[in-house]
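CHAIN AND CONFORMATION:

***
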Amino acid sequence: MDRNIIKRELKESFSWMYRDKRTGKPRRLWKTILLAALYAAAFAWLMHTFYKMGCALCVPMMALDLEWLSFVLMGLLSMFVVGITNAFHAYSSLCSLKEETLLPDGPKAIGTMLWAKFSGTYIMGLFYSLVLMIPGVIVHLQYAKPNLIGFIFTLSIPVLLGLLSLALSCLIAYIVFAVSNRIHNKNLLTAILSICFLASYYILYEKSQDIFDAVLESAGGVALWIKRLAYPFYQMGLGAQGNILSMAVFCGTVFLIVAFEGFLLWTSYRRDLLKRKSQEN
């Protein structure tokens, strides 16, 4: 069951490449190639932009002995952008759980169903995260020059950030899903959320240069803020420099967050599943 669902979810996640969403029919080959070329150009532009931003961050930070800070800021930006963007895919996965006809039986089967449903969300999030994090990794390796252990940790951190992006996406999707179940006019909710989403991106884009300049001017204050309020990410930055204990702390934090949120989703889905089975009986 789990393999079939995982294959189906992964196929559905990348269906935008070969299937027309309006008609549901496969795209013609030239359209698929053109779409792939457009996305490749857009991703290349994004990676180039993030590389330039990473260089502009890392060089001043190194002068202040805060080279870990630029990598952490790139990671946080990637996590939040991907987590918010991928929330739509997570919401679709939550809705599909309601419509799933193949009902699992037993705690392990419920967990397998959840993982199968959200595997596509994780792969999509990881794909987008790598587009944003690969430039950050290159900049960190180019300027910070970590040792061999730091090199290995730096390459593995984007995968862990993908898990955090998945947790953030699922949290946002679950809140929207819970609210939408209590609102009769779901189209109105969708419109409001879309407007808020676009407005947030527009404001962030307009203020990005001001935020960037403010971070450079008060790098010490930002570093202190991260140490106090986002301590696991401070450990992530030290881990990228080769600190094994710091990397262990960050890995443990990521797995705890993912496990806790997975348990909440498992409990919620199990409650809904029992309700559906009782209605069928």
Observations:
- The longest helix spans residues 107-144.
- The chain is about 85% helix and 0% strand.
- The chain has a mean pLDDT of 80.
- The chain has one domain: 2-280.
